[in-house]
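User: structure tokens for this one?
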Amino acid sequence: MTGHDCAQIEAKLAAATAELDRIKFTLDVVGTVDLDTSLLNRNGIFESIQRAQRWLVRRGDIYGVLYVTFPDMDVSNIADPAYLELMKHLAATIAAGVRDVDEVGRATDNSFAAVLADLEPGALQIVAERVSKLLTQVTGTSPNLTGDFKMGGVEVLTASHTYGTVLD
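Assistant:
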């Protein structure tokens, strides 16, 4: 094999990789699932909030959004398999603290949102405390996490908010 043959193969591989990256980006923009972690992506979280909002309008079901961020997490290599496994583990930990009817997704490279359906007033605080305890156990034992996590949430009592406002 000559240097010319290698260069042609490398060029074809680079073109195929670029096309795959473009397709992945397109799917991420229009889809609702994060392709790397199989979690809801930001679009999926918005869709879940919209569904909860429709139930609020139709039946008066209060819902909430719990947001967890890891501000000191190293997101310099988000394609690293260890990073992706950590994301899945953190999402599973959050999901363990909420009910089966609630949905957890990856909002950004270092944050998650859980959409809590059909809440009783004041229940968000109870869920947040439960999730916080679980995450404290995980972050205390993971060498890949440095620093603390931050958590916030909102109970949505009226239909006057848009899904973007609720997540913000």
